[in-house]
Amino acid sequence: MACIRQVNLDALWGREAATVDSTLRGAKQTIKVLQQVGVPPPFLPLGPYPVGDPFGYAIAIAMVLKSRELGRYADYQQYETIRKLRASFSNIFQASLPALHHWKVMGGTKPSRFLPTAPPTRSGLSDSRKDA
After folding, report:
1. How many of the other CB atoms lie within 10 Å of CB of 102?
2. Which residues contact residue 106 at a Cβ distance below 8 angstroms, ignoring those fewer than 6 apart?
3. Which of 14-28, 86-100, 113-127 is most confident?
4. Which SS3 state, helix, strand or coil, does residue 116 take?
C-alpha cells in the first residue's frame, strides 16, 4: 500500500499546477458555454475504474521497490537502472497474444519512431489491458 501511495503521489505531482488550473478553467468554460445551448459536456466519465491492474501499477510498484535497494554508488538504485524493469515489461507485453490483438500506434513524428504497442505502462486505459 505504501508503494501505491507513493506512485499516486508521484503521478499527482507530475503535473504543473498551472496546467491543472488551466485544464479546470477550460472545462468550466466549456460546460458554461454548452449549457447556453442545451448541449451536454463532451467529457468522458472519470470512473469507476475496473477491478484489476489496468494502469500498470504492478510495474510501478516493482520500480519503487527496486529504487529502495542499495545501488552501486548510492544508498538507492538510480533511475537509469530501475527504468529497465518497465522496458522489459513493455517488450514482453508487445510479444504477448493480447498485444497482437490490440495494436496501438504510439511514437513520434518520424515513421521509424512509430511502433505498435498497448502496454499499461505506455499510455491511457485501453481494451488490450483487460487481457494483459
Report:
1. 16
2. 114, 115, 117, 122, 123
3. 14-28
4. strand
Give, for 60, the enclosing helix (H) or strand (E). helix 57-67
Residue 57 scores a pLDDT above 70: yes
CA pair distance 60, 75, nearest whole angstrom:
20
Per-position DSSP letters for 62-110, written without gaps between them: HHHHHHTS--SSSSS--HHHHHHHHHHHHHHHHTSHHHHHS--EE--SS
Q: What is the reported pTM?
A: 0.52
Predicted pLDDT of residue 117: 54
What are the boundaries of each domain within the chain? 2-94
E strand or H helix at 13: helix 2-13
For residue 19, the Cα-to-chain-centroid distance in whole angstroms is: 17
Name the grid cell of 76: 538507492
CA 62, CA 37: separation in Å to the nearest integer?
49
Grid cell at residue 20 = 491543472
Q: Are 94 and 119 in contact (CB under 8 A)?
A: yes
Identify residue 2 by its one-letter amino acid code: A
Max CA distance (Å), the chain: 63
